[in-house]
Design goal:
- The chain is of the alpha+beta class.
- The protein has one domain.
- Helix content is 32%, strand content 23%.
- Strands 1, 2, 3, 4 and 5 form a five-stranded antiparallel β-sheet that branches.
Length: 118
């Protein structure tokens, strides 16, 4: 596990352990919770077979270098929220240009990472 993943797991564990008995994560309030609920609702709609155009309604291609078959996308409203995606390419390959009709082959769970820059 990389350092960021370990840090997130430790923070999540601390958060879970800090809830007094009888209080659940459901009672959290605030803009961060609202954002994560929106991300989770979006993720429920993105399944293998979904077209690239649907992914790109809420996610943008991340900065930095990525090469097919794996590509990284960031959530438009918070570029620290990312997913890794592989596509089934309509033309059989991603070059010279990806097609809006490419379909998701796999999509990771969302994770947090600082934005990448070229």
């Amino acid at each position: 596990m990389n350092r960021i993943t370990k840090s997130l797991l430790c923070a999540a564990a601390a958060l879970v352990l800090s809830f007094p008995s009888g209080v659940s994560a459901q009672s959290c309030e605030g803009s961060a919770v609202d954002l994560f609920r929106k991300v989770m609702a979006t993720m429920e709609e993105l399944k293998p077979g979904t077209e690239r155009t649907k992914l790109e309604l809420d996610f943008l291609h991340d900065g930095g270098l990525t090469f097919p078959p794996g590509e990284r996308f960031v959530y438009k409203k918070c570029p620290m929220i990312k997913v890794d995606v592989t596509f089934t390419y309509k033309n059989g390959h991603a070059w010279p240009q990806a097609s809006p009709e490419d379909t998701l082959a796999t999509i990771s769970k969302p994770y947090l990472e600082n934005p990448m820059n070229d």
